[in-house]
Amino acid sequence: MINAANPLSAVLAGAGMLALAPAVVAARGGEGHAPVFLATFAFCIFLAGLLRFTTQGRAMRLGRTGGIALVAGIWLLVPLAVTPSVALASGLPPLAAFFEAVSAFTATGLTALKHGPVSLFVWLCLLQWAGGLLTVVSAVAVLAPAGLGGLPDRSPRGGAALDLVDLLAVLKETAPVYVGVTLLIIIALLADGESLYVAFSLSTAVVSAGAHLPPEAQLALTLDEAPKWILLPFLIWSATSVRWHRALLTRRINAAPEQGESLLVVGWCVAVGIVFGAILFRVADVPAVEALRDGLFSAASLVSTSGIGPRDGTYASLPAGLVILVVLLGGGALSVAGGLKMLRLRAILLRTRGDLMRLIYPHLMQPAAYEGGVGSAMRGIWAGAACLAIMFGLCALALSPGLPSFDAAIAGAAAIVTNTGPIYDAAGGGWPAISSLPAGSVLVGVLGMVAGRLEIIGLFVVLHLAFWRT
């Protein structure tokens, strides 16, 4: 795995540079945590330099399985490197701080922090923002070419070995749009009168489909109506394919590779939003326009697997089973959304329809497009769905000993595997934080969150390789 040193060192260097922002915030605010973040910066830069210079001059060439192992390692090593800063700034014990760092970096939003210094929330927001960028880059450059879970691979390499140039090319293609949308959200919220702190926090959460928000940002969503309308289209944007985004921005909409799925995701958000709005209108006794707005916002947030709510108590007014179903289905492939993905759901439904039709008409000839897919792609889709179900069950069983009910374990497992942390807090009202559970449950939760960013099946691939190589 020495070939993974160059990209890993680059990611660690990037994490170190991000640590300078909360250091500046802490220094200006007199919070006393500036040395902690500066030490994190120095530590990450030291590790990055060590990896870089000890492997200098070696050609970076990774196979598909090596690329998956590299991405899995990044999801675990970066939070491990920043855990001391989270622990010292928040006062959490080491294991809980590690869980918090993984939750932020994977844009899950499962948190035990309700209050804390500004610099800490800036740090967590930056981690979730970086994690969202890593999600789309790894999906396009590593997971899709490896054929994990039937993800669409339209790269010209045709499954060849992964090269550093491929990673850089995908990053250069994706990062400008990602940064641009982040800045656009910040500008729109500033124009609405929000503070820079609130605008920054909300923008990082929406663009990464994360949910680490300071109390000031959640309060702004609750009290002010405009931010919900501003953020709504960006939440839908986060739930759709990055390749579709590029086609839209370059005015090649008819050539958009994932247009069908992306339009399906948009329609799904609207349909679920109308249903949610009707439920809120009847149950929560709010005016029709507010109910529709909150319903659409909640639907877009859950489909994108962000989970930030329009106000406190909104998800508690919705059927818990329906909320869990929406996040398990998730958004579009090659997006920051988690869950099963509409690509797989559509393929499974089409294949089921085709099989039923053949039972009725044994000699019926159908185009492959009407059957969801053929060959290895369809096998990958079934494998991805099966792995999601297995990981969901494992997480529920691992969490249940430390939780007051199995309902809590189901909600916690759904929050973990789909990277949608707020649904656990919203469903339970008083349930303990996941990071406060026994160590075994916490570690399974960490693996579940990382698995959610590896399309679930990626974690099983890494574990399989680790088992047979030992």
Describe the structure.
The chain has 470 residues and is mainly alpha-helical. Helices cover 69% and strands 1% of the residues. The protein contains 20 helices and 2 strands. The protein has helices at residues 5-18, 20-29, 34-54, 64-90, 94-105, 118-143, 164-191, 196-208, 215-223, 226-238, 242-249, 259-283, 288-303, 320-329, 342-360, 375-399, 406-417, 422-428, 439-453, 457-469; strands at residues 61-62, 162-163. It has a two-stranded antiparallel sheet.
Could you give a quick summary of the protein structure above?
With 470 residues, this protein is an all-alpha fold. It has helices at residues 5-18, 20-29, 34-54, 64-90, 94-105, 118-143, 164-191, 196-208, 215-223, 226-238, 242-249, 259-283, 288-303, 320-329, 342-360, 375-399, 406-417, 422-428, 439-453, 457-469; strands at residues 61-62, 162-163.
What characteristics describe this protein?
470 residues, 2 strands, 20 helices, mainly alpha
Produce the secondary structure layout.
Layout: H1 5-18, H2 20-29, H3 34-54, E1 61-62, H4 64-90, H5 94-105, H6 118-143, E2 162-163, H7 164-191, H8 196-208, H9 215-223, H10 226-238, H11 242-249, H12 259-283, H13 288-303, H14 320-329, H15 342-360, H16 375-399, H17 406-417, H18 422-428, H19 439-453, H20 457-469
Antiparallel strand pairs: 1-2
Helix pairs in contact: 1-3, 1-4, 2-3, 2-6, 3-4, 4-5, 4-6, 4-20, 5-6, 5-19, 6-7, 6-8, 7-8, 7-10, 8-10, 10-13, 12-13, 14-17, 16-17, 16-19, 17-18
